[in-house]
Amino acid sequence: MARPTLLAARVCAQMAALRTLLGVCSVLLSNFKTTLEDDRQLLDAGRGSSSSGSRGAGGGSDGPDEKAEASQQQQQQQQQQQQQQQQQQQQQQQQPELGEELRIAVQFRAERKRVLLRTIKALSNRVRIVAGMQGLREGPPAAAQTKKGERPPPATARGFATGAGGGGGGHGKPRRSK
Fold it and tell me: Where does this protein have compositionally biased stretches of type Gly residues (predicted)?
């Protein structure tokens, strides 16, 4: 069985570390009881944005029938506006306004979720890159490899040390001092 090369070992170690980090981030994100969208809706509702649209009646009218018709339309519009206002009041009563501290806490929680989501995305991209590196091999390119029966090229441009003594770069027997 062949031993994995140094590059392959590094790639495997990186993949293991990235998967561990992805798992940790996923667990941290799953510990929240609400989603990021829920927090956004809560913040939007907590601002108390009550917008009541008041629409004006139409232009002038010529005949008595048209005046009666216009007054009926105005009454209907007023009734619709009153119903909308009542519905908005009911919704506001059902959704309590957020206090300043609670609003800040929800904003902080939402920001932590955003950071975790960005981290997961970045780690996922890194996993794809490292997974692409798994196919790479360490060593010289295939064209520079030696064929069977040929001598491999020297590893360095420096020569080999010659045996005993004379400045062989630390190879061979050490000198004796007299």
Answer: 162-171
pLDDT tens, per residue, the chain with 178 residues: 455 577 788 888 999 999 999 999 999 999 999 898 988 988 888 765 444 344 444 444 455 566 677 777 778 878 888 887 777 777 656 655 668 888 899 999 999 999 999 999 999 999 999 888 776 655 555 445 667 778 777 767 676 555 555 555 555 566 676 6
Cα 82–Cα 84–Cα 90 angle in degrees, nearest 5 = 105
Non-local (6+) Cβ contacts of 26 within 8 A are 120
Q: Report yes or no on 73 lying in a domain.
A: no
**What is the Cα–Cα distance from 88 to 51, expressed in whole angstroms?**
9
pTM comes to: 0.47
Indicate whether 54 belongs to any domain: no
Residue 22 and residue 17: Cα distance in Å, rounded? 9
Report if residue 53 sits inside a domain: no
- Per the structure, the complete domain to which residue 42 belongs is given by 1-46+98-138
Residue 85 lies in a domain: no
C-alpha–C-alpha distance, residues 126 and 14, integer Å: 10
- Report the domain count for the chain: 1
